[in-house]
Amino acid sequence: MSELIRVPDIGSGEGEVIELFVKVGDKVEADQSILTL
Q1: CA angle 28, 16, 14 (to 5 degrees)
Q2: 15 vs 22: CA distance, rounded Å
Q3: Is residue 12 a contact partner of residue 24, using CB atoms and an 8 Å limit?
Q4: How far apart are CA 17 and CA 30, in angstroms?
Q5: Interatomic CA distance for residues 25 and 7, integer angstroms
Q6: What residue segments make up the domains of the chain, in order of their start?
Q7: Tens digits of per-residue pLDDT, 1-37?
Q8: Can you list the pairs that 7-16 forms with residues at least 24 positions away whose Cβ atoms lie under 8 Å?
Q9: Shortest CA distance to 20 belongs to which of 30, 4, 32, 31?
Q10: DSSP state of 8
Q11: Helix-strand-coil percent breakdown of the chain, rounded to 5?
Q12: Residues 2, 5: Cα–Cα separation, whole Å
């Protein structure tokens, strides 16, 4: 099951993903970090 993830507006319109903390298929808990922009 997929969920929409909302990211706060960082002002530039684009952002580069620096680091991913989860893999495809991983379960994610509320308030768990999933990536660094």
Answers
A1: 105
A2: 18
A3: no
A4: 20
A5: 20
A6: 1-37
A7: 778 888 778 777 777 889 999 999 899 998 899 999 8
A8: 7/37, 10/37
A9: 32
A10: -
A11: 0, 10, 90
A12: 9
Q: What tokens does 13 get?
A: 């319109």
Tokens of 1: 């099951």
Tell me the whole-structure pTM to 2 decimals.
0.59
Kindly state the tokens that stand for 36. 């660094």
Length of the chain: 37
Residue tagged 């298929």 (tokens): 25
Q: Which residues have CB under 8 Å from 19's CB, separation 6+?
A: 35, 36
